[in-house]
Design brief:
Strand 13 and strand 14 form a beta hairpin. By secondary structure, this protein is an alpha/beta fold. The protein contains 15 helices and 17 strands. Helix 5 packs parallel to helix 10. The two termini are about 25 Å apart. A seven-stranded mixed beta sheet has the order 4-12-11-10-7-5-6. A four-stranded mixed beta sheet has the order 1-2-3-15. Strands 13-14-17-16 form a four-stranded antiparallel beta sheet. Bound molecules: 4'-deoxy-4'-aminopyridoxal-5'-phosphate.
């Protein structure tokens, strides 16, 4: 059983608090893919700081580098002055990530949140093009300050009084209108038709895999079309890699398999190995900022440079890269089996997967049940209809399998409950149950499940 958290949080912290309600224990330590609460109970982490802990909690390389840096009185805070930690980070980022991919980009360190990277990207696109309008997509999530919130789609986060959405259009994301509709046609048509009602935008901003929106994966073909539509019309393409960059999709950048070259890329979360750090990659000719034009006190967090530099070396380790493929295959076959045995939709790539239960509330109940059995996992989608799997990339295969087993048990339990409720609501439910048992893809009948 989980212990009750301190009431200090309930009494003192604003009603805004969120995750502490979902995971109502007091966490005390963490290592790799495990969190431990103050009662010594260990949890497998399939949430990984919403993608900030791709390299695990207290990654050994990062921890060692941080201890040495602090021991040597390394500079802790320096605005955007040059420090040894910044130099080392930039050098490794260039050598390990940019150069092998022939990516000629400038690096801008923004304020430490992903949202601030999005703000900077939007501002730069507007400044460079001289245009205000921006196209975003249905179910998009880009953050919560005014500019970033304007391109975020979910109405839960909006309020009329916040203002500032006048300069944004949300067009249908890939698959939004079903598999047979190529929604890139909408973008092309809106841009080309002077009577579409949409001003020519400065930029199109997108996530290749929409994380918060419920794990919706854009196809490579769609991404290529959108990139080309933008390129020929002089509209900048901003790819928000905040959740699915840093290896989450299986490759370092999620757009690599599409072979596109975004104009601006936002990176955050795991770039600092769990410490706050965000950056924007800017195609060289677009780097038209004046010095200090998008400034902030906490640009370039030195401890995050140290930790972030240390974890970048994982990308030079062939066993890390091979391990990603192996773990992705484990999750995918687990998800495909789940789909065969239950009425669910599964979506994902690499180490981000979503199980869509198609109705509000159920995913939350499943996540709560899984937590009671020792698994930290989050929901996604506008109606919390999706369970989102986001384990650390460095998770041990044994923890991955153990976490999947807990999740599967919770799903089986909750779906069995659903089935019973549905069947009991039906007057002749034994007939219904036996007729359903004939369909191998249906939810198993209570009889089947109980034996
Ligand atoms: N963009 C995407 C795609 C995200 O997933 C998030 C965070 N979930 C953000 C932007 C905002 O990042 P932050 O919460 O660090 O401001």
């Amino acid at each position: 059983m989980t212990s009750a958290p301190t009431t200090l949080v309930d009494d003192l912290e604003s009603n805004i608090r969120g995750y502490c309600r979902q995971f109502p224990v007091v966490f005390q330590s963490a290592c790799g893919s495990r969190l431990v609460d103050q009662d010594g109970r260990s949890y497998i982490d399939f949430f990984a700081g919403a993608g900030a802990l791709n390299y695990g909690h207290n990654n050994a390389n990062a921890k060692q580098a941080l201890l040495e840096y602090l021991q040597a009185d390394g500079v802790m805070h320096s605005l955007d002055m040059t420090t040894t930690s910044k130099l080392k980070f930039l050098e490794t980022f260039q050598d390990v990530i940019l150069k092998p991919r022939s990516m000629d980009y400038r690096v801008q360190f923004t304020g430490p949140t992903g949202t601030n990277a999005v703000e900077a990207a939007l501002k730069l696109a507007r400044k460079v093009t001289g245009r205000r309008h921006v196209v975003a997509f249905t179910r998009a999530y880009h953050g919560h300050t005014a500019g970033a919130l304007a391109v975020t789609a979910n109405s839960y986060y909006q309020h009329e009084s916040y203002g500032g959405r006048d300069d944004v259009s949300h067009l249908p994301f890939d698959g939004y209108l079903g598999a047979s509709v190529d929604t890139a046609d909408f973008l092309a048509r809106y841009l080309d038709d002077p009577s579409s009602g949409m001003p020519t935008p400065a930029a199109v901003i997108l996530e290749t895999i929409q994380g918060e929106g419920g794990v919706h994966v854009a196809s490579n073909a769609w991404l290529r079309r959108v990139a080309e539509i933008c390129r020929v019309r002089g509209v900048l393409l901003i790819v928000d890699e905040i959740q699915v960059g840093n290896g989450r999709s299986g490759a370092y950048f999620s757009f690599e398999s599409a072979g596109i070259k975004p104009d601006i890329i936002c990176l955050s979360k795991s770039i600092g190995a769990g410490l706050p750090l965000s950056l924007v990659l800017i195609r060289e000719e677009l780097d038209q900022w004046k010095p200090g034009e998008h400034t902030g006190t906490f640009r370039g967090n030195n401890l995050a440079f140290v930790a972030g530099e240390a974890v970048l070396h994982h990308w030079q380790d062939p066993s890390f890269v091979a391990g990603l493929e192996q773990k992705a295959a484990t999750i995918e076959s687990w998800a495909q089996r789940l789909k065969r045995e239950h009425e669910v939709i599964v979506r994902g790539r690499g180490l981000i997967w979503g199980i869509d239960f198609g109705k509000p509330g159920l995913a939350r109940e499943i996540a709560n049940d899984a937590f009671r059995h020792g698994l930290v996992i989050e929901t996604a989608g506008a109606h919390d209809e999706v369970i989102k799997l986001l384990p650390p990339l460095t998770i041990e295969e044994s923890d991955l399998v153990a976490g999947l087993r807990i999740l599967r048990n919770s799903i089986d339990q909750l779906l069995l409950g659903e089935t019973l409720i549905r069947l009991c609501a039906n007057e002749d439910w034994s007939v219904e149950a036996s007729s359903r048992a004939g369909h191998s893809h249906d939810v198993p009948s209570p009889q089947q499940q109980l034996v």
